[in-house]
Specification:
Strand content: 5-15%
Largest sheet: 4 strands, antiparallel
Strand order of the largest sheet: 1-2-3-4
Shape: elongated
Number of helices: 11
Mean pLDDT: 86
CATH superfamily of the largest domain: Outer membrane efflux proteins (OEP)
Number of domains: 2
CATH topology of the largest domain: Outer membrane efflux proteins (OEP)
Distance between the termini: 79 Å
Order of helices and strands: HHHHEHEHHHHEEHH
Low-confidence stretches: 6-21
Radius of gyration: 40 Å
Structural class: alpha+beta
CATH architecture of the largest domain: Up-down Bundle
Helix content: 55-70%
Amino acid sequence: MHKNKITKYIIVVSLLLGYTSCKVPNWIQKKSQTQVLPKNFINTSDSTNNSAKVKTRDFFKDENLALLIDTALKNNQELNIITQEINIVRSEVLAKKGRYLPFVGLGPGIGVEKSSRYTRNGSVDDNVNVPINSSGKPIPAILPDFFLGATVSWEIDIWRKLRNARKATMYRYLASIEGKNFMVTNLVAEIANSYYELMALDNQLEILRSYIKIQEDALEMIKIEKLNARSSELAVKRFTAEVLKNQSRQYYIEQQIIVTENHINFLVGRFPQPIKRKSISFPDLKADTVFSGSPSQLLQNRPDIRQVEKQMFAAKLDVKSAKASFYPSLNLAAAFGLDAFSPAYLVNAPASILYSIFGGLMTPLINRTDIRANYYAANSKQVQTIYKYEQTVLNAYVEVSNNMSNISNLRKSYDLKALQVDALTKSIGISINLFKSARADYMDVLFTQRDALDARMELIETKKKQMNAMVNAYKVLGGGWR
């Protein structure tokens, strides 16, 4: 009767321990509740066309620019580094897959054993006659062991812990590919922006040189007027200073051209060399109309959103995998082969044949702090990725809204600046004629030339901003990586 009670107590305690070991700590997880995207972008009505779907070759029609982009996609060092990182993650996917498959080893093994006298085997050997092998010789106390065969170990993934870990790694692999696509988008945009900046600098340098020639002619005119006592040395000095200022300014622009060329060559992955371009056509370039499409299309077109989305899926699977660590794990171990204390007996089958199989159901019971900490960390990382996803979507919408507005405002600004340049260019000849007829001061001529120069430089700068706005709109919509 007493023995039956003890048995019942043992069974009850075992069940309680098993229940406690399988109980998962409570944890409140944040569900993905991203704000509903508006149906359209502000100040846009057409939501059917989307420039992000246009291929790079079709969007950038300048053949020299298209060639630079193609070369960069092959030679850019940072892009190639990311490609190798993707290969590393892909190898991790294969490694994770191998963990829930059986591990099989095949080969020979050798060992030696000497049992202590104070162990069970040693005390038995000490109190009986030493056994005799088939050759009539006694078996030595230090017993060798030779094995030739296969061993198998296998953790059966009954809770899908290993499969979820492998699937999470697969999502991270896909996220790394999206990360590369996002870098391609940025690389294409950076090369295009630098290319248009280079063309703008060429035009500004040409404008500056032409105005230096105009100011040098004006300086000669002022010198002649001084000889005729119709002007002063002050006027000569002011015009001389203006010419020297602009002559010095042209070297600053030439240095910017060199730096921009070298930057493009670096992005393309080659040593410095001249960049082919047709800068003379830059003022006549028209910024192509960029169609924004609908905000919901950002979820498919923006690689950074697609990247974070896959990271969010991976984090969710990490939680499931960490949760499964609280449950019992089933492990199987097996061996089959030939085993003997002498190599001569290995071939004496079937007497030398060895086979064994063992299965164990192991439950984490005491000191589960590490498992619990991993579970809490996985939960926090999942919540973190959800917030990051929401932030990325919001940032994408704001970027598109800002760039589409920028395109519209720059178009209006350029039209007004063009009128300003036209007016100031005509005023140069008027001011010179008035000065010759003593109806205007030399300062009027100087300031008119200076204002006209600044206006033409600003017009080129505005054209560059227009082209950059077009490129950036293409980028933020998710174009350039296809």
